[in-house]
Amino acid sequence: MTFPSLAKQPITLRLCGPRGFCAGVDRAIQIVVLALKEFGAPVYVRHEIVHNRYVVEGLEAKGAIFVEELDEIPEEHRKQPVVFSAHGVPKSVPADAASRNLFYLDATCPLVSKVHKQAMRHNKLGRHVVLIGHAGHPEVIGTMGQLPEGAVSLVETIEDAELYTPSDPDNLGFVTQTTLSVDDTAGVIKRLHERFPNLTAPAADSICYATTNRQEAVKQAAPGCDLFLIVGAPNSSNSKRLVEVALRAGATRSVLVQRASEIEWDSLGDLRTVGLSAGASAPEVIVNEIIEAFRDRYDMVIELADTVEETENFLVNRELRHVPLTTQDMAFVNGE
Ligand code: 2E4
Ligand code: SF4
What we know:
Distance between the termini: 49 Å
Largest sheet: 5 strands, parallel
Strand content: 15-25%
Number of helices: 11
Helix content: 25-40%
Bound molecules: pyridin-3-ylmethyl trihydrogen diphosphate, iron/sulfur cluster
CATH topology of the largest domain: Cobalt-precorrin-4 Transmethylase, domain 1
Radius of gyration: 22 Å
Order of helices and strands: EHEHEEHEHEHEHEHHEHEEHEH
Number of domains: 3
CATH superfamily of the largest domain: 4-hydroxy-3-methylbut-2-enyl diphosphate reductase, catalytic domain
Number of strands: 12
CATH class of the largest domain: Alpha Beta
CATH architecture of the largest domain: 3-Layer(aba) Sandwich
Shape: flat
């Protein structure tokens, strides 16, 4: 007599490193937590501090209130601080805050601020700025908003680079959004350079270290994966790029998930090797939740697919440096 086997199917989970929170995200979340400690609730945050519901809901539970525009802050709370999200804001936003007598704390990632400065430098030197990025993304709105209307042209794709017709082709400088696909952007820049040989590059790369490292780790881990899961939100640019990188580098399938509960187990088919990484705004606690969900269902071996070690760390705003964080706060800030 034979019995159906109760043994779980063996599976290898390739866990990418670096993954998840970058220094800019860590700093931005810290700013909201520290502001709540120093000034008490509510602390207003303009736009999701980073594109992650778990983080936003965790901060709401501590007393943060998320708004899209400053005019949503009620009159009676005008003395409470408002934090600008990690993605950066157009120059009009701090100006508007000042005119409303609001106290603001800027959580723009220093690497986004660096791109703002690069764009301003091009402009100061008389160059028209070409911004490579995705239309409508808050970082793109923020970078375009560093300069007067008409001073920046947005190029999204190779096709845009092909069709772009500047009025002064010999006087152009480019910058990019920080979270773009490294490979796609290289193609766009190459085409722009071919068409406009005098195009000036920024002094340093605008795609940031965290974007570059997460894409490289996924690229190395993807060949041979039947499925590649990326933890991240549908509005997270850097997370969506990781899905594209996994597919291009050879994963049979790649899916963006926000929580383990979103995984459609019945549709996964026969799995042998699964890749797992997380966008820069995705907390490690969700990566762990997904690992445990696989452990429940499969006989799992974890293979670490680490590339480089990251040591970047960005200081919070001067006004908040003296505020102490408890171990519990630190765990939240680190996504644990
Ligand atoms: C600011 C700049 O820009 P993206 O949509 O990837 O933002 P997300 O909040 O997902 O990640 C953090 C971040 C913030 C990345 N670059
Ligand atoms: Fe800053 Fe890069 Fe992180 Fe964006 S992904 S917050 S630019 S370090």
